Amino acid sequence: MSTKTETLLIPDAELNESERRVALMEAFIERASPPPQEGDLATGTVISKDSRSVYIDLGMFGTGIIYGREYLNARDVIKKVNFGDTVVAKIIDVENDDGYIELSLREAKQAVIWGDAEAAVKEKTFFELPVLEANKGGLILEWQGISGFLPASQLKSEHYPRVGDGDKDKIFEELRKLVGVKLSVSIITADPGEGKLIFSEKNGDSVGKQRLIEKYHVGDSVEGEVTGAVDFGVFVKIEEGLEGLVHISEIDWSLVENPRTLYRPGDRVKAKIIEIKDDKISLSIKALKENPWSVVESRYQKGDRVKGVVIKYNRYGALVSIEAGVAGLIHISEFASAEKLEQSLELGKTYEFTITLFEPKDQRMTLVLAK
After folding, report:
1. Residue 137: CB partners within 8 Å, gap ≥ 6?
2. Range of 28's domain?
3. pLDDT at 7
4. Could you report the per-residue pLDDT of 37-54, keeping only the tens digit for each?
5. In the prediction, which pLDDT does 16 show?
6. What is the count of structural domains for the chain?
7. Residue 219: CATH number of its domain
8. In terms of CB atoms within 10 Å, which of 124, 204, 211, 283 comes out highest?
9. Cβ(134)–Cβ(174) below 8 Å
10. Rounded CA gap, 148 and 154, in Å?
11. Do 145 and 156 form a contact (C-beta atoms < 8 A)?
């Protein structure tokens, strides 16, 4: 049986025994430890320091030096460095004109910080950081001297700017309210090459939130507190750490134009859970109310003359309320143009109509002006 062994270059036979041993040891060390490369971090001991440079013993690799621009960039740190101290520095030149290895304390510090950031991403570590600035897309935070960005989409629901029309100026005004506030955030992207640090406020409560959600099921009735009303609906806190959204279409059987006119923060409401998806709960207030279409099924039929109030124009024509929660459509084709329709049917006024289609199970009714 044969074994494979590593071989070393044997020193010249003309060397004496002592020189042969030293040469053999140097050859062994050279093979065991690869020479330093530009960009590597090196650890060494301070052996000399003056007003312009610091010399560092890097052991078998030689002597490192911090001087010139790198000395100026790190002078605040260098003031605290003394003879015999151990320092970590980044190699920026493996051999300068004087034979020294050029080092950078500043770049070493940055490399260590970015290394810590990458570790924080993997470990999902959370930090309490104050908001320094806001812009139309999110917030600016600082971690270990590096500025990072927290997109609005990565904010928790209680901090998310609830601007229904998507107006960027309004979003900016809402985000500005968070300047100075400490947030619990994790780093989700650390890219030293591009100097990109991205934070998220969401991940920290994902496990806890999932546990809260598991207590609820579609069809459950819940009672909660309104935390905000926006153009597209109402946010309701079901319990601490758990919030649901009542979309504008689920607020009432009647047409709702502006949720803010119906609900304010602090109001107590009852709602039904109609969907649980991706850690989000959708609620319906109207689902706990009687569907007016089921009540009027025997009350109307095709050909009946009814009175109704014009409540809204849309691209198909005009919506007409016959009674609370029951509305029919008079199609734009009944008029020469949209302008003619609006001239003939004014918002808020009552007219007499004839029912041309009545399908209560599908909540459909069409009308024409009565003749």
Report:
1. 149, 151, 152
2. 9-33
3. 39
4. 888 888 888 898 888 888
5. 64
6. 5
7. 2.40.50.140
8. 283
9. no
10. 13
11. no
In a domain, 359, yes or no: yes
Q: Is the pLDDT of residue 3 over 70?
A: no
Q: State the residue for tokens 């991205």.
A: 198
- Residue 113 belongs to some domain of the structure: no
Helix (H, G, I), strand (E, B) or coil at 308: strand
116 within some domain: no
Tokens of 9: 């270059």
Examine the pLDDT at 365 and tell me if it is beyond 50: yes
Q: Is the pLDDT of residue 262 over 60?
A: yes
Q: 194 CB contacts (<8 Å, ≥6 apart)?
A: none
CA distances from 287 to 217, 257, 294 (A): 15, 18, 13
Report the predicted TM-score, pTM, of the whole model to 2 decimal places.
0.51
* CA proximity to 165, closest of 96, 280, 258, 244: 258
Contacting residues for 156 by C-beta, under 8 A, at least 6 apart? 201, 202, 205
Contact 138, 151 (CB under 8 A): yes
Q: How far, in Å, are 28, 332, 342, 348 from residue 369 at the CA level? A: 102, 12, 13, 16
The answer on 219 and 153 residing in a single domain is no
Strand-strand pairing, 242-247 and 280-284: parallel
Nearest-10 Cα torsion for 34, 37, 43, 48: 120
